[in-house]
Amino acid sequence: MVRSEIFSRARQGNADALAALMNHSLQAKQITVNVSVQEQSMVAIATGQTAPDQSFMVNFICRGLRKLEADSIRKVTIVGYLNGGTIPLWRETIHLDGNLDGNEEAEYPPLFSDRPTPPPPPVSESRSPVAYPASLTPIASRRRRQPPTLLSRVKTLVGVLLFLLVSAVAIAVAALVKLLTALLAENSIYSINLLGDLFRGIEIVEVFNVLVFAILGLGLGVATAFIPRYLGIRFNALIIILLLPTLLSFGTIIRYDNWINEFAANEGISITESRLKTDRYLYERIEETGIWGFYLHTARYPSLPLYVRQFEERDPLESEAVSRVERQVGMNPEDLSLLFSVCMWGIRGFYFLVSVITVIGHFGQGIDLADRLSGRVGMSPEPEGDLAGNHPD
Known about the structure:
Layout: H1 3-11, H2 15-25, E1 31-38, E2 41-48, H3 54-68, E3 75-82, E4 90-95, H4 104-107, H5 150-187, H6 195-201, H7 209-223, H8 229-248, H9 250-267, H10 271-286, H11 290-298, H12 316-328, H13 333-374
């Protein structure tokens, strides 16, 4: 079939002609495009050995249709797949009534060129276009899936094992760093006279959360290199959501455990008895017990009793601080306690926000690194030639 006739059919919206021209140009990219047209809508299924770049494919096809002046097509749905895949990597629908950015014309060459090209495969005139649902790959045009070989199964198993191993190492290292910094604070920083109470009040050790969650996010992001991208991201994102409050609670758990042990040693009682007595103290103060009661209590009352006789007493340092504030500002103890609580929850909220931002940012960086390591980086948006197969001089 002569080239002018193929162009003419493509301008009329013939699916075979459009697919033939696209596939001829995309051979070097190892991308295959299957096209279906119904009324004024076109569905283009782009399949490649690596993930077809979404931005490139959208601009390549839409700008080409405009240059071709295929007025019969007003809406284009473009879907990207990996070879043999059944789940779309991405999908985008474009209404050709809209305008692309002006600089895209320089970045993406015209769809067709006036220079001669080898003729594409013949176009069947009798075949009527069939539209496919955007969520499915066309059965007639989908490549026949080969049964998995022993080698492919071994590769999949090794990938899953490496994914689990790297994820486990990232979690273990982050948890270890968090545990060590919490122990360092309890056994060293918070033991400093005067300054220790101040540092404990503002929970200064939580500053190390930046390091903890940077390790966690980066490691879990890199782990996605070994399994399908969408599966790895979803699984490890769920792990991050579950681990975030767990890791943040390490410091509170260690402080609570140290308080129970120190109270038991001072009173000469067992750990079980110490836990019962401190739970009674917490319940009388805030009507909560255990670690949760301890967490709420330390947000409002900076000092903790280490003897039974202190249950109804106030720490001398705290009493002096309260008295000084009462004289200088005129605030009563209840208002001062409420103000301290507001400040503490604000500090804790700040640490939590920093942790969330850190883990999300480094998780994204880890995914980018995983894409490069696994070769999943999208193709360059600069095509090697236009859809007619021409290459720049």
